[in-house]
Amino acid sequence: MEFSTYLESILLSKEHLVIAGDCNIHVDVPHDPDSLKLLDLLQSVGLQQHITEPTQIQGHTLDLVITRSSDDILNKVPVVDRFISDHASRRTTSVSDLNIFNSYRNRVTYLMNQARQAFYTNFIDENSTDHKRLFRATLNNNTLALSC
């Protein structure tokens, strides 16, 4: 799907909008054709790109945070925190960012616990007659799926 088509579909929502990620376009290079095309597209549909510092070790801005120009979501420009790989992490002080992160983290934790419970329940059911294998599994639960 073309990015412009994607934008058209999500811009119809009345919810606050945050698009974040690695766009692989050097938006810091003023005469780069891809950069110009992206920034013109964002401006034409009322969106704003907030990252103003390099997010890559080579000094380019590839990782973007985009919101509606009319939304007042970010109280400060996100800052580059540290370089973890060839890109930098972004840090924001937005309460809504923290709430969204906590919501996703809680959901992932819940799903992981459900999957873990199902795995152990199935493992015990399948091996209920093999006490030796169950005992070995308790010694090193990292090898449950691999032990024979």
TrEMBL record:
Q: Which InterPro entries match?
A: Endo/exonu/phosph_ase_sf, Endo/exonuclease/phosphatase
What name does UniProt use for this protein?
Answer: Endonuclease/exonuclease/phosphatase domain-containing protein
Species source reads Porites evermanni
Supply the SUPFAM superfamilies for this chain. Answer: DNase I-like
List the lineage, top down: Eukaryota, Metazoa, Cnidaria, Anthozoa, Hexacorallia
Q: Which residue ranges does the record assign to the Endonuclease/exonuclease/phosphatase domain?
A: 3-88
Transmembrane stretches, start-end? none
